[in-house]
Amino acid sequence: MPDTPAEADTAIDMESWVCPAPLRDSPNIVMGHGGGGAMSAELIEHLFLPAFGRAAEAGMGDSAVLDVGNVRLAFSTDSFVVKPLSFPGGTIGDLAVNGTVNDLAMAGARPLVMSTAFILEEGTSLDDLARVAQAVGTAAMAAGVKLVTGDTKVVDAGHGDGVYINTAGIGLIDERADIRPQRATEGDVVIVSGDIGVHGVAVMSCREGLEFGTTVASDTAPLHGLVAAMIDTGADIHALRDPTRGGVAATLNEIAKTADVGISLDERTFPIPAEVRDACGLLGLDPLYVANEGKLLAFVAPTEADRVLTAMRAHPLGAHATVIGRCVAEHPKMVSAKTALGGTRVVDLPIGEQLPRIC
To answer: Boundaries of each PurM-like C-terminal domain copy (predicted)?
Structure first.
């Protein structure tokens, strides 16, 4: 019991968390809490939100929509701790820019400005840092976003992995767009913009020196141009998400829960490159749970799906867009997949992360 009124005011009431396993069963943070799966969701729902209280807005999504005067802005923040700093197809630098740009794009926003904060480990090579910083600048210029403020901190040797990057971004939402996960509805077609599982396999291949007979390069890319092309069709796009941590499976489960719909997938339509499928088979991974950094999932009405698909396939980042499923009235809040053998399996929210530290 606290001894003074001041201590009583600041005492942490852990019982108010009403937290289910695995969070309550784990008294310390584990890697799974950062994986974008069930443990991440429980940490937010049962620790952060109760602790924040009324200071927290209800959304708490990848980006917030803010009404400022006569315009709508999207605001997002993210942190990047990928290991190693460089991998086939990218670096932590361009990943930080593209990841932030994409969080804004999933609200239908054109990115305007970003902040960048670097947490550096003592002893990190200045040449390595220069390569990361160059990648940040190059990616920002390619995305048309301005880097307007930032910060630098240094931590003791042995207390980091060279470079961590925190970002925040602001974008202007297209006035024609009302894109949010709550709008996914029964009958909607689920479209993925291209091959899945590529980024996670690219990072995994170089992290442990694994070789799969061919080089798998990360798909990291800014998606706001693709989203703009989709909006320009005039179609009413209900929801967009980029399936990063936890992959396609985690993202679809989050949308199914938020919109209170069921999602039914067809495994035969999944665009999984042979090298990704082979790597996942070798390591016992499900490609649906492997991270992506340059792909999006779109929910649109069936009457507008062909129009959106045509626009996506005309864009370099959507050339291999395909329909992988639909929203259904059955099994609300649940994702299922029809297998190649004709059976059906549940595609559940992952507990943690198959491959941590991928973004």
So the answer is: 186-331
Q: Which CATH architecture has domain 181-346?
A: Alpha-Beta Complex (3.90)
Whole-number pLDDT of residue 315 = 98
Which has more confidence, 125 or 57? 125
Residue 90 in contact with residue 138, Cβ under 8 Å? no
Domain covering 64-173, topology:
60s Ribosomal Protein L30; Chain: A; (3.30.1330)
pLDDT of residue 121: 97
CB 198 within 8 A of CB 317: no
Phi-psi group of 75: left, alpha or beta (phi > 0 → left; psi -120 to 50 → alpha; rest → beta): beta
The whole-angstrom separation of Cα 229 and Cα 319 is 12
Helix pair 198-207, 274-283: axis angle to 10 deg: 60
DSSP 3-state assignment of 15?
helix
- The residues of the chain that CATH labels 3.30.1330.10 are 64-173
- The dihedral region occupied by 164, where left means phi > 0, alpha psi between -120 and 50, and beta the remainder, is beta
Alpha-helix residue ranges (DSSP H) falling in the chain: 5-10, 38-43, 49-52, 92-105, 126-143, 198-207, 224-231, 247-259, 274-283, 305-313
Residue ranges, CATH 3.90.650.10, the chain: 181-346
Residue 337: pLDDT over 90: yes
The tens digit of pLDDT for each residue in 244-265 reads 988 999 999 999 999 999 999 9
Yes or no: say if 245 and 169 are a contact pair by the CB < 8 Å rule.
no
Distance, CA of 103 to CA of 99 (rounded, Å): 6
